[in-house]
Amino acid sequence: DDDVEHSQKLIHNMHTIQCLTMDPGTVNTKMLLAGWGPCGISVRDANNTYKLATGEEYAFGEEVKSGSYHFGGGASRDAQDQGILKEFWNKLSDCT
After folding, report:
1. End-to-end CA distance of the chain, in Å?
2. What confidence tens digit (pLDDT) does each residue in 33-59 have?
3. Alpha helices, H only, 1-96
4. Phi and psi angles of residue 19, each rounded to the nearest 5 degrees, phi first
5. pTM for the full predicted model
6. Which residues of 54-84 are buried (b: 16+ CB within 10 A; e: fewer)?
7. Residue 65 CA from chain centroid, whole number
8. Are strands 21-22 and 69-70 parallel, antiparallel or unpaired?
9. Distance of alpha carbon 83 from alpha carbon 69, whole angstroms
10. Which of 8, 75, 81, 87 is 20 to 30 Å from 28 by CA-CA measure?
11. Residue 8: how many CB atoms within 10 A of its CB?
């Protein structure tokens, strides 16, 4: 079962879980079609989120850097700056 396999990979790779970001793009949902018409991709083709979460080349790829951006954009330089990341973490910690 795919869910069991995915869970086993997560458990095995807990120390390597990464933060990957993406823009899913414009998808022709019922709401978009009602308001704007067909200006995006079909729902059937909108599978980038699934690919990013499960694909060997993304979620479990050893060459993929945490903080990277996928599917139509460039990665944020801030995501690779340890000083900015530490400041961000500290602000988040202060809020919780």
Report:
1. 38
2. 999 999 988 988 888 778 877 877 776
3. 2-12, 30-36, 48-54, 82-95
4. -105, 110
5. 0.46
6. eeeebbbeeebeebbebeeeeeeeebeeeee
7. 12
8. parallel
9. 20
10. 75
11. 10
Name the phi and psi angles at 16, rounded to 5.
-115, 15
The predicted-structure confidence for 66-94, as pLDDT tens digits, reads as follows 777 776 555 667 777 888 888 988 898 89
Dihedral (Cα; 64, 69, 75, 77), 10-degree rounding: -80
Distance of CA 52 to the CA centre of its chain: 6
In whole angstroms, give the CA distance from residue 78 to residue 61.
Answer: 21
**CA-closest candidate to residue 71, choices 81, 58, 60, 61:** 58
Asked if residue 75 lies in contact with residue 68, where contact means CB atoms within 8 angstroms, the answer is yes
